[in-house]
């Protein structure tokens, strides 16, 4: 190329890299071509593999009715040449190249593998995974490199001269592609080989001679090769390879010259070996060849555009129909929800009317009440209401008429009571609205469970048990609820879901805060070994014991701590152990017995009255984390530890009476309150195992829902278990009546506290669940709702200065309910022990 050509915009050089050697003969450049092929052979293989991978992805999409690669479309077996179709495709590509040239950009990648087609023959340029850094090169800005080389294209192209390669290559992909080629060769031309040869076919003579980078004229040459492939089809790969090699010499097959003379002539013009003799893109676009009067072509283009518009409308219509259907489903569900909420509102209003009528009896003519408050107990009736009734009855002696008496008896108390109820509701409404979303979710969950199941007998309802005794205690309040809440309209039963939800809501709103009733003041607060690991109340809740890393079991009298203000509280009994203590448990029948476990794997039974150990069990090989007495059989004891075993003991026998072997550390165990044969085991493998001790080989049920170590298990009642884990959650499980496999769906998941690494305690009582937190807080949940009911944060007080400070390292290490009361004992990692009461 001479200097004048290089100076012109038409012949300006781009920063394209050299292409693989071409088949076009040029003796003066043979040695350079061979050297070039050697330099790029390996990298060219990688580029082709990446290009093939890109096209394979396109082909897989094409199977679903999406775009298809133009390369695959051209090599489709049995493809028939349609004049209008081919001209339409060529015109689109020519216009795209012309637009790039108008902006001074050499496209360089005018090859079928760089284009995709829609089913309406709409052609689009693609960015291949094997491209270097950019899709095209400016004709005016790339001659600064010494070799004149830079990134040449974004479609499959040769690697850069400096050896850098930005596309993916993998031996695994290479193997997959070879296997794919072998499978597809029977159907069509092998894609890998075609892509490899495509480089030489679409390389212009000046690029093959390595005399300079690609120019605008090189793009025109590639358009000529593309036009040839559009109008020439082949029956075999050998025929295609031979014909394409002849094309480098501008030798066209006879059938093309006979059938498509105009197209062949135009193709030869574009393929002229001299770049300056080829037409410019402006000439190509204005040529008679592309602008000949073809009414059928215009009609086809119009039909294609119309079809595309119809297709777009169809897509929009399909989207709107799907959207309409989904919204209708949402509306139907919303309508159903509103319907049963409306029914529930009506039912609750009717029940409220019955309660109001029973709460305010009318007087008969003899001046006596036809119904009595005591005959019709009502929930939420407190002493103030009875007092207001008595005060009003004393006013009946003031000499008013019988009608006035009747009016006053029915209206005056009702007004005062309604005012009191309104004040109570207002005081609780803020907590109600604060957790409205979670309460809503709990309502719908309870409603769905109620609609799927039949009403269970009263004995099957959740009856909370304490961690101390495990017995169910019915309060006066619960007996009142039983009388009133079971009756619905006209004395009938309520909807079966209402009672459990209302019970949970009442329990949730019954208390507003945790109040400190007493602080346990010990004389060794400065001792760093004060971490309390376990606490428990005796059979009658008169005494409680603490144990921890100070190797001591201390027994305190509850009333002395609660009722007497002392500077320092001393234990009534103190027993020393050789190792750090991990857990203690009182015997639920023999009041003076306590079982303990320690860090050396020793299980002991202590006699508190004599302050001495009665028995030592040394069969565990590692630290024991948990020990528990059976409530149903007070002579039976179980322990579990880091050796992955659960040992069963009898206080009347020297050695263990049974062993359960697990695959992971055992962190917690507990007997079922009503059976000496059922045991729950919390494991470090994130699961809870429930065993029937008459068959120790395998668990009768596995509870799998936690994502970290299960640190505690507690029976809420005979058929419900609460588990705690270091995944920041508690879970409530409904145990199956018969042997079952793995349960993965808990009834409830409680979240709000923080527990990532420490044992923070777990205790249950009357449906309330207490746990500690690594934020130095105590959290109270109720079984009906997933969010905390109450919380209390331990204040860290400096024992010398008395000032409060926030120590992020401290956490609540242990909690324990005092039987079925609302009083809770809690301790943190610094040894601070408090009596907390729900008020």
From TrEMBL:
One of its GO terms (cellular component) is nucleus. InterPro entries: Kinase-like_dom_sf, Prot_kinase_dom, SPA1/2/3/4, WD40/YVTN_repeat-like_dom_sf, WD40_PAC1, WD40_repeat_CS, WD40_repeat_dom_sf, WD40_rpt. Residues 1-290 form the Protein kinase domain. WD repeats lie at residues 617-659, 703-735. Residues 173-183 have a biased composition (Basic and acidic residues). Residues 462-472 have a biased composition (Polar residues). PANTHER family: PROTEIN SPA1-RELATED 2 (PTHR44218), PROTEIN SPA1-RELATED 3 (PTHR44218:SF1). This is Protein kinase domain-containing protein. It comes from Ensete ventricosum (Abyssinian banana).
